[in-house]
Structures are given as C-alpha cells and as structure tokens.
Design goal:
Layout (H helix, E strand, L loop, with lengths): L2 H6 L9 H16 L4 H11 E9 L2 E4 L1 H14 L3 E5 L4 E3 L2 E10 L6 E10 L2 E9 L5
Parallel strand pairs: 1-7
Antiparallel strand pairs: 1-2, 3-5, 4-5, 5-6, 6-7
Helix pairs in contact: 2-3, 3-4
Length: 137
C-alpha cells in the first residue's frame, strides 16, 4: 500500500459497483456454464458479458460472445447432469472479482473445482479467467 492511501484510509473498492460484480460472478455459474438450454444461456451471455469479452480457460483464449457461448455449450454437453456450486461468497476488488466453485452431480461432492476471476467493465464481464484446481474427468 502506498503512503498516501494508508493516510486517507480509502477502501480499495471505492467507486466500484461491488454488488454488481458479486452478481455477475454468482449468475455466471448457473446461467452460463450450468445452463443446458441454449436460448436461456445466450440471453444470460448477452446480459452478463461485454460484446468483446475474453475467456481465458485451460483449453485456450476465446474472444466474443459467440465463442463463449459455443465453449459453454460444448462444456455443458460433456456433463449435462452437473451443477456448479459456489464455495463461499464472491469477493470484489475495484473492477474485479473472484468466486471459488465446484462442479459435479447435484447433492454429491464436486468432481472438479476451480476459481473464476473476472474483470468487469460497464457492469458486465469483460474478461473471465478460469483456474481449475482439478481438471474435469
């Protein structure tokens, strides 16, 4: 922390829409990556993501809503009965946030886990970084 910030005691997220960032994180899991209906998934992507969004995931970097939609749909098709469950509350800092999660059959221990880290712009997700703790089987 720099000397000026420590003297003024300004919280690190002043001016950030913390509740919007938290909402983006919590809605993204079930409405984008957990949604099996392509029409509902696409509507959520339109509402939650910028047009020029970027997804950074283990398979590579994808740009734009169409690429994100295809990736989420393809992933969903490999595990149609899995649900995404947040592990703890989302955290927001400035224009970013993170949320730990697990995925697996409803009511069972997660088969794989990870953390989503987002950068928000204009109330939408501009970048999503997906860190996997354990790869999906």
């Amino acid at each position: 922390m720099n000397e000026h910030a420590s003297k003024t005691n300004i919280p690190p997220s002043v001016g950030a829409d913390v509740s919007r960032i938290e909402t983006l994180l919590t809605r993204n899991l079930p409405e984008v990556f957990g949604e099996g209906d392509p029409v509902r998934r696409r509507a959520a992507i339109e509402e939650l993501y910028t047009v020029d969004c970027v997804l950074y995931a283990p398979p590579g970097i994808l740009v734009g809503r169409d690429a994100l939609d295809k990736f989420a749909g393809d992933l969903r098709a490999t595990h149609p009965h899995y649900v995404y469950t947040p592990h703890g509350a989302p955290q927001a800092l400035h224009n970013s946030g993170r949320l730990a999660w697990g995925s697996g059959p409803r009511g069972e221990a997660p088969v794989y886990t990870g953390v989503d880290f987002i950068i928000a712009r204009d109330g939408k997700i501009a970048a999503l970084y997906v860190y996997l703790d354990t790869p999906p089987s």
